[in-house]
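URGENT: need a sanity check before tomorrow's submission.

F., can you look over the Ricin B lectin domain-containing protein record below? I want to be sure the sequence and structure line up before it goes out.
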Amino acid sequence: MFKLTPLFITLLAGLSYASPAIQTRAGVPEADNICRPVGIDKTVHYVLQSSSTPSSVWQAEGVTATDFSFVDLQTKTSGSTAQQWSIQPVNNGNSFAIVSNGPTTPVCANGDGGPLDSFACPTVLSTSQVAQSAQFFITCQSCAANNQGANSCQIQSANEGQCISFLDANFNTVKLDDCSSSQPNQFWDIVVAA
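Structure tokens as predicted:
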């Protein structure tokens, strides 16, 4: 019977990693070609648009001075404060709060296993060192060199572990769903608002 020794296994593994096929691989594996927008300019308002449908952006609905009801996708409208968001690094830059520009007081997008809704976050603009109740992990395929935006970002709830998604153009509520790197409706571009 043939027995594999630890030395043989080590040599075989070393040869496979030295293979030109491994060194020249293409595509976007989970751990390659990603960035986290930790240096994002938090003084700028952004729109969060679908990477698969760039004309569709997040919009806070039912906006009041201190709240909004939920988030859905709508056609991008220049100057609409309900479509503008700031991205605030929190928890020492390990995660991010997404703050609506619609209400006059800081209100963050929040997800608890369903449609995104609001969460009052009055200290988020002045306290970047601590964790927030409504926070997200953001990983992107590219981050702007000037720290004003990012492309093809997957946004995952730090509390729920699910990713922000929508079903399709007919069912456009922005909600949390199981994360998938092959689901185009889970990728977002963070673009400076016009």
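My own read: The chain has one domain: 27-192. The domain at 27-192 is CATH 2.80.10.50 (Trefoil (Acidic Fibroblast Growth Factor, subunit A)). If you see anything odd, call me.
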